[in-house]
DNA-binding protein H-NS
Amino acid sequence: MIAANMFSNTLHQSEFVSDSHNTLKDLLAQRAALDAQIAQTKEAELSGAIQQVRDLMARYDLTIADLSARAPRGSKIKEPSKVAAKYRDKETGASWSGRGLKPKWLKAKIEAGAKIDDFAV
């Protein structure tokens, strides 16, 4: 009974394919037409966007150098905050915040037998 239902479903699917009248050649032609339409639309939208940018540049008297040279007015560029040192070499004054990879000076001292706690601030 189940096999008969599966055969019946397969039969209906194959009928659908033959009834659709879409051949591979037809579908490829449709895809080519859509690809051409997509390219035209993309070009038109791009041209419109470029024109909007030019209009804004003219309205505000901006140059290309203005676009890349300065931050927007009123915005402050944050300086990276400095993190306090957690480890310091008393001999050289070198320090490490404990973030990122261990510095070479600390690795060398640990390999020489020192404990990381010896350098804690």
Q: What stands out?
A: The longest helix spans residues 24-59. The two ends are 80 Å apart (CA to CA). Residues 8 and 19 are 16 Å apart (CA to CA).
